[in-house]
Amino acid sequence: MKYWIYSSTCVIVVICGGSLYLYKKRKRKSIAQEPQLDGVLALMKEEKNVVVKAKKLHPTMNIHFFRTLLKLMKLSVPGIFSKAGGIFILYTITLVCRSLLSLIIAELDGRMVVSIVQKKPKLFIWCIFQWLMMSVPATFVNSLIRFLESHLALCLRTELVGHLYRRYFSNQVYYKVSNLDSRLNNPDQCLTEDVKNFCDAVAHIYSHISKPVLDLVILTRASIHIDVVRGEVTSLPLSLGAMTITISAFLLRLLAPPFGRLVAEEAKRHGFLRFVHSRVISNSEEIAFYDGSKIELSLLQQSYNALVRQMSRIYLSRLWYVMVEQFLMKYMWSVTGMCMVAIPLLLPDSEAPTHSINVISSRAHAFTTKKHLLISAADAWERIFSSYKEIVELAGYTYRLSEMLEVFDDMEREEYKTANEGRLQTLDNSSLSNREVREIPALAEIVETEHLIQLENISIITPNSDFIVSDLSFKVEKGMHLLITGPNGCGKSSLFRILSNLWPCYGERVHKPPPELLFYIPQRFVFTVSL
Length: 531
Fold this sequence. Notes:
Oligomer: single chain
Largest sheet: 4 strands, mixed
């Protein structure tokens, strides 16, 4: 028997070691191929004007994460009397009912064992009937918890999406994000997948934290009450349990991978892959003319492979972390739980020294009830510890959404960040310079008139601080016609971007009608879709 145990252990160690060696070898090979992909991604990002971020907060559990989470929750739950607030209250009540049902079922299990020990068939049948009757509300409450969790995530998403959509389509933020700023590369990814993942994670984590905490309070109180009623010592088992939980928490916190950064990077690569797909769709005619299908296919494959490598890193990190987590929570905690249940019953003075059927039944009842309570408590602790990595993943989604909201705020304040500058460009700052070290003039004064378009010493400057036209002045009154000609890049379309407030206007003064009195015929037509 010992030989079989030793040989099995050696085989398991060899398999684990070989798997780890093969994985590291494959990882080194993939890292060697990474620069080629990074070069391609760098070229793609340069085309998209992606900024190299100077100083950036990492997605992790810190004070910034909790502040941002609180801000997003205020947007998702406008008030306690809102739909999301009502579902939160109903969800909490359902979780409380489930914890109380667990306590009742534990008591029924103890009575069932007593009826078996005392050989009372009628009592056993009655306990079975009660147990089955309690299973009906228990199963309904379990199903209701899942339903409310999904519905809560949907309500949070509805409120948050409504707020983000209003921000996105106000003050032409949708245009500025894609054309004047380069920090938010994939707003569609943030407004869809990231919002969904964030709301699902919040609803799931709320259930995995609030219910276990409530279970621990109720079950611990019930277990202590049983020991006090029986006159058994409770300090030693509680100390043993607290010590085991503390050591487990320390080890899991020490060995936990940076799930927040990993998930944020995965979402980023998801968005970049979507951007490459949309780029092919929007430039399909040009790609077909230049016969660039092979290059675009290579870019798609390399972007997808980058996503696969990142997901593989996450899966491997979870493999070793879950292994340690399961070892501590399933095996170490099981041994600790058995000791906590057995110690009060094994002490010589815990009960009167008699072997009557009543004493045996009482011990069996106490053992079964406390075992059920400890199993439920261990499950609650396991969900609390397992929710740590989910909270860290939530930090990644929270970071993505906070970055998007920060960009929206900057767009409303007309503060842009471009790839050429690498730092924040404020329109009110007159110390910026273009490639020729020319001073950018102050923002022009906008005067709204009804029948006049007049520019007084206006400079047309791109968001990258490149001068196109300097000191442009003209006047167009009602009934006049003006034809502007010139080569590509001379500022014909840029003039209309200034008149429609798409680009910032520098210079002295602009007289123009309000936007509702101006009508433009763009070079490319966009037709709305019917629903």
